[in-house]
Amino acid sequence: MFREDKNFHGMAKGEKGEAPAGSFDGYVPLVVEIMRFFQTGIAPVQPKETIEIFAFMEAADANKAKHPATKISDVLKKQKR
Question: Is the pTM of this model over 0.85?
Answer without folding.
Answer: no
